[in-house]
Every structure is written in structure tokens, then in C-alpha cells.
Specification:
The protein is mainly alpha-helical. Helix content is about 55%, strand content about 0%.
Length: about 100
């Protein structure tokens, strides 16, 4: 399995439950005090805090920058289900 797919699977695992997904994170880096992650911080943690790996994962998901991810994640109409669909699509497109 390639690194992008591994990192996407790890990201999904971190936020698979709605209780573990954070929206409007308020600038936390890593986990919030509640232990939740926004999509951007979940990718960072899943990539072992390696910004180069994170950038590759985010590009694979269609984002040009981390602020783009935050804006997408924090859209008031965004749902946890939307985040999982995005991750599942990225996982399915990742090469073995």
C-alpha cells in the first residue's frame, strides 16, 4: 500500500466518528482539548506531523493549501458525512 493511501486511512480512523471530527476548530494545532480533529489537523497527525507528506495528501484530496482545507472543513453546511465521502474517494483513488 502506498504512503498516501496509508495516510488517508489513518486520517479517516482519527475522525471516523462524528464525536472525533471538529468544525470551526478555532486555531488548535493537533487535537483540540476535547480530543477531536478538524480535517486539516487530522491529516497532519496521520502523516506523523510531516508537512511534506501532509501536502501530498491534501493535494491528492484536491486542496492547494492548508487554509483551503480549513475553509472547506469549516463551511457551515459541511457535514461529517461529507468529510468521510471526501476521504473515501481519496482512498479509492490512491494507488495500491
Amino acid at each position: 500500500m502506498n504512503q498516501i493511501k496509508q495516510d488517508l486511512l489513518a486520517t479517516r480512523e482519527l475522525i471516523k466518528s462524528p464525536d472525533n471530527w471538529l468544525q470551526l476548530h478555532g486555531g488548535f494545532v493537533g487535537k483540540s482539548p476535547s480530543g477531536s480533529h478538524c480535517l486539516g489537523n487530522a491529516t497532519y497527525a496521520a502523516c506523523d506531523y510531516d508537512v511534506v507528506r501532509q501536502k501530498l495528501v491534501l493535494k491528492h484530496l484536491g486542496f492547494n493549501s492548508l487554509p483551503d482545507v480549513w475553509e472547506w472543513n469549516d463551511n457551515k453546511n459541511r457535514t461529517h458525512a461529507d468529510v468521510l465521502v471526501l476521504l473515501d474517494d481519496g482512498i479509492s483513488r490512491a494507488a495500491e
